[in-house]
Each structure stands twice: as structure tokens, then as C-alpha cells.
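Progress report, Aim 2. The chain analyzed during this reporting quarter is listed below.
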Amino acid sequence: MKYVITVFGLGFVGITTGLGFAEMGNLVYGYDVDEKRILNIKNGVIPFMEPKLEEVLKKHLNNNFLIANNVRECVEKSDLIFICVGTPFSNNGSADLSYIYDVLDEILVEYEEKKNRVIVIKSTVPPSTTKKKFIPYINEKKTSITTNFTIANNPEFLREGKCWDDFISPDRIVCGVEDKGTETLLRQLYKNFEAPFFAVELNTAEFIKYLSNSLLATMISFSNEMSIAADLIGNINIKDSFKVLHMDKRWDSCNMKSYVYPGCGYGGYCLPKDTKALLYHMRNLGYEPEILKSVINMNEDMSKHAAKKIMTCVKKNNKIAILGLSFKPESDDVRESAASKIIDYLNFRGYSNISAYDPVATTRFKQFYNFDFVEYIQNMDEACRDAEIIVIVTAWKKFANLKTKYPTKKILDLRYFL
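Predicted C-alpha cells for the chain:
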């Protein structure tokens, strides 16, 4: 059976979700308040770097993936409404749910057709949010309308740079449900996905998402802490130490090695905001999660440690070339990137003779961060040629032969991949 679906929010998660369901033969309406993003999508352009998505967009655009011009009309036709808007962390670390409430206000109105519609929260929210906040909010709104809405959650497990493959070939599908009818509908929706389907309680589904991201964040921070310990002890080959660690046969059947490996800290969107939101949430419940708190503090300290390593190698007036501005290779996402924190700390300590290069993220980084003292270079060789020290902050494959190209240059590999 095919369904009519409206997807609110056409960012990284939303556009992937919409196109994924379109690929499976459903009719999908996509909506976003960002007019520039909508214009790009209407022209067949994905407004961020993500392999395969643009090809899929051009395949389904104006066929079974349509841009919603009239929200009310689209929701009225829909069986399911997926909410995929952002939940960024606020100053105190809590998850900002305002965008979800905005969508709920938009859709919880009277409709002519009195069928049941399922609202699916795909945005990441702290455990118990759907049950304690969204359901009471919907029930209050429903007092003035007769249309029936039920709610579920369906956390995403998408990796930037591999989101299409992760959506089409998931390792698991998790749905939080309260009633059998909603569970049956979601099982049918995901019927053709070859992955185990878990129908769990609402709180459990939300918790699984945070459990996953907090674990990944913890492993990254553990590895970074161990690299600091190795630096302090001295005479330790950090690269070889972790390579030998990965030879443990228990790692062979999974792809977790990149997380248990030191670098400059985690960045991007999910890990920073979700670890902070979970810490805030647990504190509100009267529990102080020391490891999680340490994970967040460790991530903040890692950029300072990296900057201090640079400072021990050069004088304040020396030219520093920062290679890699995105938070990870194969992505142009610069949110919470290690490069931004390292540059900021270097400048704070009086090191401002800095050039920067990234294969794809330079323009986005320049727009996102106000570092007017940084010289942005469009060519890697030009950035390296005039530098006293070359600092690798993101492990792009393009940087793998730097020691061969510049055998006499001082190179600081903060990702331990050369």
C-alpha cells in the first residue's frame, strides 16, 4: 500500500526522508520555511553537500516528490505527517523545541476529511518529550477540532555523507508508538525496507537515539583523552597505539573504529546538541551524569589542547596553515567544527597569522564564522607553500600525501592519519 506523506523541514534529515519515501512509491509533499532552500530544491539543487541526493531529487521532483505550496491542502490529503525540523541546543544546553511547536500549530486545525492522521516526530527530542509535552499540547488543541491526530516518533540514524544509503538500507528502524493502529501503519510504510523493525514505547524510541549519539560522543572523547595522556607521558606513538587497539577481533564485525580514534573533538549537528540536551534533561531529573558531563567538557578542552600543540611549534608571527574546515571529511558541515574552535583559541592567544583551506567547506565556513583575520585560500598547495606549519584538522583523503609533497615542512597531524 502506498501513502500520502507531508514532510516538514527539508534540511539534511527531511529531504532524505521525503525522497526516501518517494523512492518507495509514496506521494510526498515537502515543506520548509526557508525560501532560499525551497528555491534550490525546486531547481533540482540540494543546498548542502550530500552524495546521491541530488540525483534522487531530480528523479522524483514534480513526480512523486512535490514542494508544498498550500500546507493545509497537503496535510488534508496526507496519511502521515513527518516533522523533521531542527532542535538546536539553547544557551543552557536544553533542546529548543520551538520549531516543532510551530509545525504543530500549523497542522492542528480543522479539516474537511475526518480521517485519522499520524504525526511522526523524526526530529531528535529528549526522552519523554513526546509523552509529556507534545501529546498534552495536541490534546489541548484537539478540544477545538474534530479531526483525529495520533502521534508517534521515529528517530533517524543518518550519517552525514552517507545519508541516502543509511535511509534506503538501514540497520534498524525504530518507532515509538502508543496504539496498535499507528504501529500497523508504520510497519506497512516500512514494509519494503530490509531491516529489523522495532515498535517500542515513545520514551524508549527517544532514548535509543540519545543512547546512540551519546555513546559515539563518549568514544570520541575517550580516545582524545587518551591521546592527551599519551602526549603528557611522552615517547608514545599514538597512531600505532590506536591501530593496534583496532586489531581486537571484537571490532571486526562493525564500523566503529572511526569513533574510537583521537582527533580534535566531535562536531557537526547531532553529537554536540544531543549530549548537551541529555545532560540538561538528566539534571532536571535530579541526576548528575558525570561521564556525560566529562564527555562534553572533554570535547571543549580538545580544541584548546590542539591549539596549544600548535603554539609549541611556532612563534606568534609565524604563518599557520589550517587544512580542513568541515567537522568531518566528505561533508561541508562546519557547525561546531574543530577548526573554528582552534582558530578562535589561537587568536585569543595572539596567533592571528592564519590561512585556511578546505576542499568544499571554505565558503560555508567563511559565512558561518566571523574570522576576518583569516586568509582563506582556494588552493591547497598555495596554502601550504607559504606556511611555517601545516596543521591537518580534518582528515580529507586529499591531504594524505602531504609528507611526500612537503618533506621539509613542519606538519602537525591532529587526526593521526598520515
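The chain has two domains: 4-200, 209-413. The chain has a mean pLDDT of 94. These observations will guide the mutagenesis work planned for the next reporting period.
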